[in-house]
Amino acid sequence: MLRSRITPCLLVHKKGLVKTVGFKDPKYVGDPINAVKIFNEKEVDELIVLDIDASVEKRGPDFELIKNLAMECRMPFCYGGGVTTVEQAKKIINLGAEKVALSSAAIENFDVLAKIGKAVGVQSLVVVLDVKKTFLGSYEIYIHNGKKATGMKVKDFVTKLQNIGVGEIVINSIDRDGKMEGYDIALMDMVRDLTEVPLTILGGAGNLNDIKEVISRYKIIGAAAGSLFVFKGKYRAVLINYPNSSEKKNLILS
User: Which residues are known catalytic residues?
Assistant: First the structure.
């Protein structure tokens, strides 16, 4: 049975764990493997790990990192970054990841999604859409770590994903990234009405009440966050954290 998930999202840049604001100015916050060890102890639902350099640098996934993550993780994790082929996706799953995420490749080579879904199972295929609000109020998809506008509207592409079938869609707000001012509810309202595919929202969570709001509003949804789980306090001191079991129960069952 599906249930709401609360998911830390880790960004990897130059082998280190970083956090960005608006997809810019990555701040080093530690070692990815050390962060995973702490999240193990906190019994997180799952992890999303995104290599934000791979597509920009036109290189493939960091299989050594994936192997090390899989050896350390005691929770399911999803890996994205540089995945463009069926072979890469199969290798990531074989190394121990439960899910493989595509972003730039999903836009630039849409047909590969069905092939990867067939090879690894649709339930293991995740599409991450990095989106930004336009002056006219619609939402446009960006690729290559937010550096390249595609001209494609979120509404149109989510409908395409609904039609071919994927395991999960992650909606990542570039405008809200790292600002900790709350999720873009209008964006999620629109996407939720378009698809029955499991959704995860990312970008903007500043406190547990933000997570509680989206879970209460949408019931079955993934609430992901970066800054919330690596920073603490108004001065954004680096501290890996996650709601304890009673806090999580309150968030999910409220």
Answer: 130
